[in-house]
Amino acid sequence: MVRFIGRRIFFAIVTILLVSAAVFAIFSFLPFDPASLTCGQRCTPQIIEGNRIKLGFDKPIYEQYWLFLSGIFVGRTYGSGSAAFSCPAPAFGYSFNENACVTDMIKESLPITLNLAVGALVIWLVLGISLGVIAAKFKNRWPDTSSSVFVLLGTSLPTFVTGLALLIWVSIKWKIVPMSLDGYVSVLDSPSRWFMYFILPWITLAIAYAALYTRFTRAAVLDTLGEDYIRTARAKGVRERTVLFKHTLRAVLAPIVTLAGLDFAGLVGGAIITETIFNLPGLARLTLRSVYEFDLPVVLATTILAAVVVIVMNLIVDMLYAVLDPRVRI
Amino acid sequence: MSKEIILSVTDLTKHFPVKKSKDRKKAVVKAVDGISFDLHAGETLGLVGESGCGKTTAGRTILKLTEPTSGSIVFEGQDITKFKHGKMTSLRAQMQIIFQDPYSALNPRQTIGKIISAPFEIQGVNPTGGVKNAVQSLMERVGLNPEHYNRYPHEFSGGQRQRIGIARAIALKPRFIVADEPVSALDVSIQAQVINLLDDLQREDGISMVFIAHDLSVVQHISDRVAVMYLGKVMEIGPTANLYHSSHHPYTKALLSAVPQPDPRSEKSRERIILSGDLPSPINPPSGCVFNTRCWKAQDKCRTEVPQLVQLGGTQVACHFPE
Amino acid sequence: MSELLRINDLHVAFPTDDGLVRAVDGVSLTVSQGETVAIVGESGSGKTVTSLSVMGLHKKGTAEISGSISVAHDGGFLDVITASEEEIRSMRGRSVAMIFQDPMSALHPYYKIGDQLAEAYLVHNPGKKKEAAARAVEMLDLVGISEPAQRAKEFPHQFSGGMRQRVMIAMALMNSPKMLIADEPTTALDVTVQAQILTLLASLQKEFNMGILLITHDLGVVAQVSEKVNVMYAGRIVEQGGVDDIFYNPMQPYTLGLLKSVPRISATGSERLKAIPGQPPSLISLPAGCAFAPRCEYIKFADSNACATQMPALVGTSAGHTSRCHIDESKRQASFAEAMKEVR
Question: How far apart are CA C194 and CA C186, in angstroms?
Fold first, then answer.
């Protein structure tokens, strides 16, 4: 088991290195001069050349990549002498547009995105799994029919529609949830404000995913209920409730966890519409803004970050699967 | 029966590489591990054994549906062991296979006519009287209603589907057929129909056949000779009558005694050899004689020395201490 | 010998889009203590549907069931068809246990063997966890699994097919049931392993004086282990009797056909098999008369009009040997005796 995990971690690291190198190479071959993008309208060739040297864009690409990598571990100092400025480790580059270390920008937006994604994940799992189980249990009866209406709505309504509808009705018309004008608050500082800040975005994201998970859970539960080992359990005299909540749910958990892990990874840096509608300065918004403004160091860093999250979630999912399914245990 | 040898298999092996996760060493499953036999024209060789003995792999390797690891296959005087795909395709008209599961072996989206005529199309054969005519006469021959030409596989029962598979296999008048558990999925009354059909066709067309099955009673009814396989090796091979009535290998004896017969009086009185334990893993087969872990006669020699097939009475036996 | 199971005029039908599938059509049989009663038939004959009915395992709303199924339970008899869900549940696994065809899929892949066995005990003896765990190990030992305490901690995929069927048998014995239903218990196993399992079942039956209802398609298995036999065809019992009656003196053309068509390891070697022509009927559009009539080669000895229109009654000649057939008795005896000479 330890060996298995060790190997998986090793391969995950190799994958991350390969992905980061690929992303780095793509950005280097873009038909932009990164140095000329570092200053705005009032640029002079001297400033550009100065920035080029400062940021290391004058060096060959493999050296730039090496500097980028080593910056992650030891931090990075740009320029020299009195004009030098440095980003402490882990340094992912420097944004001239914002005059800030990329790491600091990510540090501000990542918690928001994580809060958003984790909260939505919890809601959609609880909602999706329970609706799926209920629908399967009462197959072709009214709970099943009504849940299928929910599935249809959830999967067909785009998030900007549900998001805007929630915003307009719940926040503006009914004023149940205040518009989040005060900005992000950590759950540790004020749980109630934190909750109010995130509840609508959570619901927006969760509805779409919960619909998918309802459909998935319903199908998985119905499949499992037809399995021979479920018949065995009934033949032992196990109560129908136990058959459903112990024997059946246990079997559908493993595929749901896999799905959830990957969907969660997709949300980190991918919840663009939700973050935009609710004005959440999360990772997706950061990426989007950087793309608009050709803020390449930030785009580079967030792209790599998104890839790392996917790889790490894959790793976690594999390990969870090994815990959940004894057949893949090593 | 003519003495012409149509197929000659020598020391055939097929090893599948597997990854053993425990120590990450490369291991192999010795699915077929050195089998040899000759098949005469018009003869049926039964290949019996329990699951995992390699009989199905053997059948597929002989037809080169999977590449052999070593050994040679000589078909009608040609060494086909090293034949590539293109050369094999033209030979396929001569060598056919019938599968166990009559349903999964048929494309559900094709009509029966289309399925049975596929061999003509692939080989570019234009039968006299046209393809449709040829297919319908084939259908008639295997006991299907020719009017069902345009029906789909799901409209047929298991036995009828197996007839479709047989019609497809005999379409090009092959000289050699591998029948891989052709009746295992069928009910008794239907099973007998299909066995009789195979028997008739074979006699009429002079087809040679390797008949693979786990059911010894079925094999006895269709085979001229029988080979008993265990963990990739032939334990005993010989003419059917000899093998069933004076077998020498302990495994053959145990296998025969384990098959319950529809005869309650003799069933309730007869002594039965009950083998202990399960089949060992083919990744890590026992040293010496592969059967030694379950054999009641096993001695030290059996654990170290691999017994060779030698003639004994009416059969060839691979055993240090034959009965 | 006290009776453990009485099935009387059982009908089971499944409504489908294509029509009503009459899977079981008037089945009556009994099983007593210490005896093995076999139901033999081909796929679609209704043998498994019958056994699942005894356990009340047909899903509510999917099956239309009538007749009566009385199971010896807690000193009296429980009618499974009219009993409440809770009554049936307390019967399952305690008065009647069941083992299934495919031991590979009949065990939950995610739970330890020991826990799955213990659960069978715990559902009927709540709270007795220690006892259940100890009993699980004891039962594993009883069915011939070495190092039972160790193996109880393993998962099903770590067991071979034969070992899993032993585990299933151990699970069935957890509550010392008086009766066991074995639905094709050896069909998925190799012959040498089948021999092990059949021997084990026979010795356990003797030890616990269990009644066994054996469902199988294999006449050899029937001959080896059972005392009474029910031959089913298209949802009906077509012949019922002692094992010797059925195998040496069949009274019904289908039974005879089965005996003639089954391949045997025989002295004469590879003589031609005598197949039953035709296909079993669709259970949706069963003929009004005898379901076997379209395939019957003895119909010439009967009033073919009666065969086509009237379902023959299950009538007996000798003690406990009954069959459904319109053939004239004297003609039948002569021709069947002739046919039986060819068998083996």
Answer: 5
Domain A103-324 has CATH 3.50.50.60: no
The pLDDT of C251-264, averaged and rounded, is 93
Q: Are C217 and B220 a contacting pair at CB < 8 A?
A: no
HEC readout, C267-327? CCCCCCCCCCCCCCCCCCCCCCCCCCHHHCCCHHHCCHHHHHHCCCCEEEEECCEEEECCC
Q: Is A241 on the interface with C (CB under 8 A)?
A: no
Chain A residue at shortest CA distance from B22: A330
Same-domain pairing of C46 and C126? no
Mean pLDDT of chain B: 90
Could you tell me if C311 and C258 lie in one domain?
Answer: yes
Q: Is B178 exposed, middle or buried, given 0-12, 13-18 or 19+ CB atoms closer than 10 A?
A: buried
Q: Which residue range(s) make up the domain with C226?
A: 1-95+180-248
CB A303 within 8 A of CB A8: no
Q: Do C262 and B217 touch (CB under 8 A)?
A: yes
Residue A325, min C-alpha distance to chain C (Å): 6
Q: How far is Cα C195 from Cα B271, in angstroms, rounded to an integer?
A: 12
Q: Which residue of C has its CA nearest to B220?
A: C270
**Which A residues, 103 through 132, put their C-beta within 8 Å of a C-beta on chain C?**
none
Residues C260 and C343 in one domain: yes
Residues C217, C292, single domain; the answer is no
Give the Cβ contact number of residue A158 at 10 Å.
Answer: 10
Give C150 to chain A, closest Cα distance, Å: 16
The answer to whether C108 faces chain A, any CB pair under 8 Å, is: yes
Question: Does residue C53 lie within any of the structural domains?
Answer: yes
Q: Is C111 on the interface with A (CB under 8 A)?
A: yes
Q: Which residue has the higher pLDDT, B45 or A292?
A: B45
C175: nearest CA partner in chain A: A236
> Which one of C223, C248, C273 terminates a domain?
C248
Q: Please tell me whether residues C164 and C187 are part of one structural domain.
A: no
Is C273 within a domain? no
Cα gap C340→C344, rounded to integer Å = 8
- Asked, for residue C27, whether it belongs to a domain, the answer is yes
Whether the Cβ atoms of residue B225 and residue B238 lie closer than 8 Å to each other: yes
Confirm or reject contact between C146 and chain B (CB < 8 A): no
Across the range C250-254, mean pLDDT stands at 94
Q: How many angstroms away from the CA of A53 is the closest CA of chain B?
A: 49
A6 to chain B, closest Cα gap in Å: 14
How many domains would you assign to chain C?
Answer: 3
Q: What is the H or E stretch that residue A148 is in?
A: helix A142-156
In a domain, C115, yes or no: yes
Which residue numbers in chain B have pLDDT < 50?
Answer: 1
The two tokens of residue C239 are: 């012949």
Contacts of B129 (CB under 8 A, 6+ apart): none
Do residues C58 and C122 share a domain?
A: no
Tens digits of per-residue pLDDT, A141-168?
Answer: 999 999 999 999 999 999 889 999 998 8
Do residue A325 and residue C171 have CB atoms under 8 angstroms apart?
no
- Please report how many Cα atoms fall inside a 13 Å half-sphere around the Cα of residue B279, on the Cβ side: 24
One-letter amino acid for residue B27 of the chain: A
The verdict on pTM exceeding 0.90 is no
Given C247, C261, C344, which is nearest B189 (Cβ)? C261
Q: Quick one: C38 and C116 in the same domain? A: no
C89 and C195 both lie in a single domain? yes
ipTM of the complex: 0.91
Return the domain boundaries, chain A.
2-101, 103-324
Per-residue pLDDT of B30-83, as tens digits, reads: 999 999 999 999 999 999 999 889 999 999 999 999 999 999 999 999 999 988
> Any bridge partners for residue C32, and if so which?
C3
